[in-house]
Every structure is written in C-alpha cells, then in structure tokens.
Amino acid sequence: MKTPLSAVTTFVVAAAGLLLASGSLQARQPFTEAELAKQKAELLKMTEQGYNLWHGSLPTMQANGLACGNCHPDASASNPQTFPKFIPSFNRVVTFREMINWCIENPQGGKPLNVNGPEMTAMEAYAFNLHRGVPIEPGLATRQTPSIVVSHGKGFPSKPSGIGQDTKE
User: Fold this and answer.
1) For 47-99, what is each residue's pLDDT tens digit?
2) Percentages helix, strand, coil for the chain, rounded to the nearest 5?
3) Which residue from 36, 53, 58, 73 has the least number of CB within 10 angstroms?
4) CB distance 123 to 50 below 8 Å
5) Cα–Cα dist 147/80, whole Å
C-alpha cells in the first residue's frame, strides 16, 4: 500500500521539527577569518571591475563617449535599492539590470551587457557597494534618494585604474 504524499510530507516536517527542537540539527558555524578575507577580496575585485566599467573601460558599452559615470558619478541617482520598480517609460516593472542596459543602449548608444554575465554582476557590485546601508525600498519611483556621499574616494579601497580621472589615489 502506498503512503499518501501528504502523510510523507507531514512526517518529514515533524521529524525536522523534532531535530531542531532537540538541537541535533544546527546551522553551519560562522565563517573563519580566512574564509571572510577571501569573500571580501573577491567582492572587492568585482566591485573594482564594476567601477572601471561604470567609468568607460568597455568600449562596446558606448558609442558616443558617454559612460555611466557621466550621469551617475559615484553611482548617484542610480538608486539600485529601489528596484524592481515600475518605470513609466517601460510601462512595466523593471529590474536594476534592465535599467543599466537601457542606459547603455540609449544615452550611451552601446551594446547591452549579458544580464547574467560577470560584467553585469560587477556593475551591480559597484552600485550596491556605494548604496550599502541605504534602506531598501523596492517600487520607489516617485522620488530620488539623496546622492550617496563618498567620503573616501571611490567608496572602496583600491589602486588607481588609469581610466578617466580617478577619485582615489
């Protein structure tokens, strides 16, 4: 005789609950210092790549000399923490990645990035890094958040890239 799926599900949930209650099932211990250092280094590397892309390091992103940093210095007014949101010109809800590509294709006249590629991840890493600590408010389309104050150059430690005028030396 087969056991109904709902009975199996109930059993699994009850067993998991008992394990949690008894303390037998525990979350992974916090990361080691070495693991945290590696994670931070990888994120910083991706953020720096995003900074370089934001300021024009990939020629296919523009056809007219404009880079993201021309309109959004230090990722200001990009407001990644407000996405996804309804954009009237799209007449639908869009993601931050879609908005980045819209800016690349329209004001910059460039070719869009692969939305799942490393360059798009780098662009997001840079913008979100500068907006860290800003409240997440998806759907906010009626106002812009204030400019992000970058009190120490790029907003992250790095060596000058040699692209455009670096704000960190």
Assistant:
1) 999 999 999 999 999 999 999 998 888 888 888 989 999 888 899 999 999 99
2) 45, 5, 50
3) 36
4) yes
5) 12
d(CA 118, CA 124): 10
DSSP string, 110-146: -PPPPTTSHHHHHHHHHHHHHTTTSPP-TT--SSPPP
- Angle at CA 62, nearest 5°, toward 168 and 161? 20
Question: Minimal CA–CA distance to 64: which of 101, 106, 108?
Answer: 108
Cα(51)–Cα(123) distance, rounded to whole angstroms? 7
Token pair recorded at residue 28: 């992974």
Q: Which residues contact 157 (CB under 8 A, 6 or more apart)?
A: 44, 168
Identify the H or E element spanning 53: helix 33-54
Roughly what angle, to the nearest 10 degrees, separates helices 96-105 and 118-130?
110
Query: Per the structure block, which two tokens stand in for 13?
Result: 């949930």
Q: What's the CA gap between 149 and 168, in Å, rounded?
A: 14
Question: In angstroms, rounded to a whole number, what is the distance separating the alpha carbons of residues 111 and 1?
Answer: 60
